[in-house]
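Collaborator request, handled under Task 6.
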Amino acid sequence: MSQPSPGLCSKPPHQQRGSASTAAAAVAAVTAPPSTFAPQTTRLSAPSIAVNVRHTKPVTPVVGVLPERAAKKKSDETLANMWREIQGGRDWAGLVEPLHPLLRAEIVRYGELVAATYKAFDLDAGSKRYLNCKYGKTRMLEAVGMAGTGYAVTRYIYAAPDIALPGAAGPCPSRWIGYVAVASDDAARRLGRRDIVVSFRGTVTGSEWVANMMSSLEPARFDPADARPDVKVESGFLSVYTSDDATCRFTCGSCRNQLLSEVTRLINKYKHEEISITLAGHSMGSSLALLLGYDLAELGLNRDGNGNTVPTTVYSFAGPRVGNTGFKNRCDELGVKVLRVVNVNDPITKLPGIFLNENSRVLGGRLELPWSCACYTHVGVELALDFFKARDPACVHDLEAYLGLLKYPKIAKVKKDGEDLISKAKKFVLQQNFDTWRWQMAAIQVGELVQAMGM
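Structure tokens returned to the collaborator:
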């Protein structure tokens, strides 16, 4: 593997985004097949449930921002006038410690949009929609109890890794992986912008679990005009994102082609409005969300009608590492904002890269080690929750457990009126249904494997 150069971006910013013809050429080339810190942690005093934050890159304070916010009246802190900060415009400085109520609400909202993918996923082996969505686009959100979200689903997304399972006649067919949605006029007024959302579910099928275990790094090479071989991502996630299944009866083209096409179409439709792109996913889905965010930014497709960059934010829930240091650095350069919501006891968030990761690429904080280019590295800002232990991986990785903890009000207060809020919150989370999804059994097996390795 080649050593990543200190500056992955050799071209000036104004040259990185080519003309409209360059962007068009990039989109056309997408159809071609792809070639083959220790961070400081701040915890609250609660022993069982805590919230902490880790920054995977230093955050530069913006002079006047925090005092100015402190002087604001609470009535002025609405989502419509704070949305750029909530979406990571200043890397969530001053918003995660303590966790700002508007940010908490947005994390939960996007998490519920991800949870909809599980609720709508058909696990009935006798159904003609088995391993696909149970509902049509126009009624999916309503059918899963989310009619008031203010979003309209515009496209379903299908994906399949280019993997043949033992005993199978060929590569696994495409399965429903998520959806694209856009905010309605009323929702756009409340949000302060027209929000385009892409939501991804986590691992369900056997082939997807096999892909998750493919931990070798491979160059992404998303931009045909600049391959950037030092920007590498996990080969299994890349396979799910880029593999094409010509036999899929619901759509055509790879997951990547479907997404770039639909997001570009929506940006063009609302190009004269303020737009945001929000990509949210759980587990493997968070990896696909990050790959899409990087892809859009690398190709320069996240531009509005005036040529301005559309804010692109990834809300990652229980996400694993996706790429190497070169990938992280490039995402930072391109302005892709990532908020990682993790449970510190969740083994999936420590994969891949158990041994070669961001903590093992330098010696004494200075010397870059020879294998640094092969080290997996997390991207973005981490909001870490602390609940349960790895002896119960089905709970520590469950999306509903994440959301249940975040929904609980005033989580920093351990006691109120003599009632132990920690116990109450834990009881609330335990009452959630953890028996529904098949992927959880695989999560248990992975958790046991990680523990057996002494992690």
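The cover message to the collaborator said: "The chain has a mean pLDDT of 75. Residues 49 and 386 are 5 Å apart (CA to CA). Please let us know whether this matches your experimental observations."
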